[in-house]
Design a protein that fits this description.
The chain is an alpha+beta fold. The strands form three sheets. Strands 1, 2, 3, 4 and 7 form a five-stranded antiparallel sheet that branches. Strands 9-8-12-10-11 form a five-stranded mixed sheet. Helix 4 packs antiparallel against helix 6. It starts with 5 loop residues before the first strand and ends in a 24-residue tail after the last strand.
């Protein structure tokens, strides 16, 4: 679900070109009146960043496509933006983040005015429903979501299935757990490989992985090693090509400098001929046409000297451009790896959460096979919201009307079933157990 709300941070702009801005803002206010007031952006929120700058000389806005794009706020509450690097979101809302990025770009690049910066919220971090519900799992967050609505998303109150259905459900969930375990192994391996690329390592080492002896894990690690080597070789080939071009240009400059010395000697010799011919013409020993021929030869050598100097300057300019291209190659590669690493870490957190939820559901299904709850029992459901605030995980007692925030975990419990519900759901919070698998 794309949250249709955009935030602008603008510097000083041409007044005649912005006559449409008040109208646009008024329309935006009317369209998004139903959206909740701005709030700090929680981890795993997906945003879209757009940066434009007014170009007075052209009379148009130019978009900075290399800086903008789609980003995900990390589990640590940061977002990695090209050129600026990692930015701590903290308590900033979308307006504040847009203003912060605009001001940093202004200071980083040395602009007179901050560029117009837009932060659009694409998707909030999902909420998670666990415990005594029919369909535990993650669900998309929407503004104004309450605990009762989250219970409805989770399929309502858990009801023990028949023994045969429960056995089939356990088998299906066991298969899902295996798939999630394999996906977590692949994600862990990819993160190790990306971290090695980010650190500029010459090889990737999986010896510290606890499951290195497992055949499936070993195969995954070998695949990641092949990918690491292939990507490293691709960058090395491009870098080598730039280095060879730069060496060739340096050799060309050396040859041109030798030609310059030779041309200077010729100019010096012809200049002497010009001087001597002028003296002979003055004495009447040679005709004046001879002097003209010698002077034309001198000008020809001087023109050649200028051409050689121009060629040297062009070669040096090409060397500078090649050096910049070589540096850009490494910068772009590092930015790409950083973005992939951030996305993969977020994906790993989601996989761990799904595994915890599936494991909990397996245990619930197994316990239901040992004895069903009496149908006439209607215990009062209990609700607890597990919320991470300022890096701390807190459990908050809640009711059906309690409002939820992105990333919340809703624990639903029935007093009569607490004795057979041993799995603690706090570990399902993204980032609460980064080391577990």
């Amino acid at each position: 679900m794309v949250m249709q709300r955009k935030c602008f941070s603008t510097g000083r702009h041409h007044p005649k070109r912005l006559g449409w801005l008040p109208t646009l803002l008024a329309l935006g206010t009317a369209m998004f009146a139903g959206v909740a007031a701005s709030a700090p952006l929680p981890p795993h929120t997906k945003i879209r960043l757009s940066v434009v700058q007014w170009m007075p000389t052209k009379g148009v806005y130019e978009q900075w496509g290399s800086i903008g794009g789609d980003f995900t706020i990390s589990d640590a509450g940061t977002v990695s933006v090209p050129v600026l690097g990692s930015i701590a979101v903290g308590n900033l809302d979308d307006d504040g983040l847009a203003a912060e990025i605009a001001n940093r770009l202004k200071e980083k690049i040395g602009l007179v005015d901050a560029p117009a910066t837009t932060v659009q919220i694409l998707e909030y971090s999902p909420v998670y429903v666990v415990g005594d519900v029919s369909k535990p799992g993650e669900y998309k967050f929407s503004s104004g979501l309450t605990v009762l609505q989250a219970l409805a998303l989770g399929g309502g109150e858990y009801r023990a299935p028949l023994a045969l259905e429960g056995a089939g459900e356990v088998t299906r969930l066991a298969g899902s757990l295996k798939e999630l375990d394999d996906a977590i192994t692949r994600s862990n391996a990819k993160i190790v490989r990306l971290e090695a690329e980010m650190a500029g390592a010459t090889s990737v080492n999986f010896s510290q992985q606890p499951d290195k002896a497992d055949p499936f894990a070993a195969a995954v690690y070998n695949q990641e090693k092949v990918i690491f080597e292939a990507r490293a070789n691709a960058v090395d080939r491009k870098a080598k090509s730039f280095a060879e071009l730069r060496d060739l240009l340096n050799e060309e400059i050396g040859v041109l400098e030798q030609k310059t010395k030779s041309t200077d000697e010729n100019i010096k010799s012809i200049q002497q001929q010009v001087d001597s011919t002028a003296m002979l013409v003055a004495k009447g020993a040679v005709v004046a046409t001879r002097q003209g021929e010698v002077e034309r030869a001198l000008r020809s050598y001087q023109d050649t000297r200028l051409d050689i100097s121009t060629a040297i300057m062009r070669a040096r300019q090409s060397i500078s451009q090649t050096t910049r291209d070589l540096q850009a190659l490494y910068d772009e590669r590092k930015t790409e790896v950083a973005s992939d690493l951030q996305s993969e870490r977020a994906a790993l957190v989601q996989l761990k959460l799904k595994r915890e939820t599936s494991q909990k559901l397996v245990l619930d299904s197994l316990s239901s096979l040992g004895g069903a709850v009496k149908q006439d029992e209607k215990p009062v459901l209990g609700f607890v919201i597990v919320r991470r605030e300022n890096g701390t995980i807190n459990e908050i007692s809640a009711s059906e009307t309690s409002a939820l925030m992105p990333g919340d975990v809703v624990k639903v419990t029935r007093p009569s079933l607490q004795a057979v519900k041993p799995v603690e759901q706090v570990s399902a919070i993204p980032g609460a157990d980064q080391a577990s698998r």
